[in-house]
Amino acid sequence: QTADQITTPQHSVEGFVQDFLRELQFGQGMSMSRASTNDQYLALARTVRTHLMSRWLRTLDHQRDVQAKSVAYLSAEFLLGRQLGNALLATDLEEIVEEGLASLGIDLQRLRSMEKEPGLGNGGLGRLAACFIDSLATMNIPCIGYGIRYEYGIFRQTFVDGWQVEKPDAWLAQGSPWEFPHPEAAVTIGFGGRTEASTVDGRLVTRWIPDWQVQAVPYNYMVPGYHNGRVNTLRLWSAAATESFDLSIFNAGDYSAAVRAQTAAENISKVLYPEDSTPQGKELRLQQQYFFAAASLKDFLDNVLPEGFDLHRLDERIVFQLNDTHPVIAIPELMRILLDEKGWDWDEAWALTQRCFAYTCHTLLPEALEVWSVELLGRLLPRHLEIIYRINEDFLAEVHTAYPDDELRVRRMSIIAEHPERAVRMAYLATVAGTKVNGVAELHSQLLRDKVLQDFSEYMPEKFTNVTNGVTPRRFVRLANPRLSSLITEAIGDGWVTDLDRLRELEPLAEDAEFRRRFREVKAANKTRLVDLLKVRDGIEVSPDSMLDVMVKRLHEYKRQTLKLLHVVSLYDQVRRGDLAASDITPRTVTFGAKAAPGYKMAKQTIGLINAVGRTINADPVLEGRLRIAFPANYNVTLAERLIPAADLSEQISLAGKEASGTGNMKFALNGALTIGTDDGANVELRQLVGDENFFLFGLTEPEVAEIVEKGYRPTSFYESNATLRHALDLIASGAFSDGDRRTFEPIVSNLLYEDRFLVLADFQAYLDAQLVVERAYADPDAWARSAVLNVARSGFFSSDRSMRDYLDRIWHAEAAPVPTA
Ligand code: 26W
Prior knowledge:
Elements: H1 13-27, H2 37-66, E1 70-74, E2 78-79, H3 84-91, H4 94-103, H5 108-112, E3 119-120, H6 124-138, E4 143-148, E5 156-160, E6 163-167, E7 179-181, E8 187-191, E9 194-200, E10 203-209, E11 212-224, E12 231-241, H7 243-251, H8 255-266, H9 283-304, H10 314-317, E13 318-323, H11 330-341, H12 346-356, E14 357-360, E15 371-373, H13 374-380, H14 382-402, H15 407-412, E16 416-417, E17 423-425, H16 426-433, E18 437-439, H17 442-452, H18 454-459, E19 464-466, H19 473-479, H20 482-492, H21 513-538, E20 547-552, H22 561-577, E21 588-593, H23 601-618, E22 627-630, H24 637-643, E23 649-652, H25 664-670, E24 674-677, H26 683-690, E25 696-697, H27 702-711, H28 715-721, H29 723-733, H30 746-754, H31 760-778, H32 781-794, H33 800-812
Parallel strand pairs: 1-4, 1-13, 4-12, 13-14, 14-18, 18-19, 20-21, 20-23, 21-22, 23-24, 24-25
Antiparallel strand pairs: 2-3, 5-6, 7-11, 8-11, 9-10, 11-12, 15-17, 16-17
The chain binds ligand 26W.
Ligand 26W binds at residues 122-125, 128, 275-279, 324, 362-363, 368, 440, 469, 659-663, 681.
């Protein structure tokens, strides 16, 4: 039976109600009267997904028929967010479903709130992957996302006495209607063991004999394009014990050992590593990386490519995009397949491999660049280590020829680091093997070329390029901000949802008083919606009449949540001292959302401090109605979708030269918040687009930072010369926020005073000054609204559709393949 013969469900209220009731009874096994809200949600999800199914099958058939080039996006993280809303949007079912459910006395919003978001990512990198696959589907580009189906995603954050306590995220526990397991399509992945060289017909052949294996079971997810009939696939791998492995032990009579082996195998996809930017070098993490990289390659070569396909032309059919270094082990894996399994010679295999991969770097922090010790890599993947050695040997010989008198340079460029231990530099491997290396914002790409990978960019400048990040307007405007979406659509039509540059057409409306009034109404309504949510979700009371000042992102020193906090503490301190009348403070709610990596001490301390300051300030009657801190726990995609549309002020205050891009910055601007920010990451491009007068810039520039650090930075000099700063720091040190206990936050204070790697103290005064400019601007709500409208109108560049266009033009060279509608 072909996809065309499959009947599509009816796109009508009556049809939907029938399908829903059928799912509830025959799928879920529940009558209307006995069904729980979760039963109803599951039945709804299954009903909605049937609408995507025929498109999915048709997409697959079409792919097989036209054989267009595909993009394989390899990523250890896909931070998808909830699926239901997106599926309703893609299928244009929102209104039908809302009406149909209402006729049964069911509230759609209530069912939506049942969905646990798949938190299969840490932050920016994982969310970017999710935005990219959304855009590719919407742009009709054949793409398959490959990753890991973690049984536990990013931990659920709770606060106990203001300190972060992590709880497991059992996102699969209540059923997962959006995934399709395919145990019959599992592939076997080997680990450990040894290699064996022999001569066959006068040729040297090497074989890898692994000593243990696991099964990789694919789980498919639908990635629907917006209103275009395409549904791409996201394939996430889950680990399971191999049958033969179990059986051998079982036959030996040790049943318990067999079960233990099963558990060991399943550990590989058990949990997402919650470290963001600080690789731990853990063996299990390398297992995860090889597990999904190898399964994905094998899947593509054996199952996606048509039978009998000539592998020499592989690069005409696929490009493997490496999302940071996590999947880079796929490079020696492809070499191994071509050399050891297909019998190619080295040059042939290497030439092809170099055409099939491209690498995106997402960081600038030297400590975030992943290395794997030779000892570990050799133990877990002995054949891959041999291949990496050979790649390095050939490459260094080439470099030596190019720079015969520069032995130092040759050593610097080695894929194998010698100190502090012998280790493989994954970023170097990716750079040497890939067609292209890209940074994620103009400044970041420049710094990659000039600093992090300088030797490489000098040797092969043509490989280096930039693709500035973007975010999907479907989820982050259309779904998250229905009121703003309606206002925009009313003004310029709905074409902006897939062509975000058209937001430019709003520019003249910034001068239209009536439009500004309605824009402010939208913002106010979004705030009220958020205030209601925070009350129910966290028991936090927020005034809808204050400026909503928002800093949401992972907790990291370079992002400088402490700078934001010092601003709040100094306002509080000035009021306490009588230097500032509380009535002169612009009413603000400073809202934080941030998870700290569980092992990151300083970050967890900072969370404790934010909550402690919040407890004190929020209880102070003098500041009532003037200054509040809100710190809802467990910031995630779902909360972001509510918070961002309500924000007035977006905090993007990383130390210049440290934030590769940022993507939250884009989401806020598109939802009409103004940004206070440093000249860092994509802020640079944002400010150029929206105009200096609509952006609150402050702080050192990257070259200034480099110079200060070069000369020797002394944070105490700022402490000594700035009384406001001194008072704020002293107040924290005095125990004012820790029941008089001076030790509680001592590590934060001494870190700032004696180390301050990210120049918080150096930028403090500039930040305070900029906040005064913010207050003056906010005092004129109509002028503020004009700037906010201009931010929306001029940020269309930050659509991930545009990012995809750039990747297609500069790196992938793939084309749209529209799926014919039935
Ligand atoms: C544990 C090792 C490790 C190392 C780096 C884990 C995760 C990383 C990521 C590269 C960190 C990350 O998410 N980087 C962010 O990527 C976003 C998307 O490009 C950028 O917008 C952020 O600026 C960057 O910090």
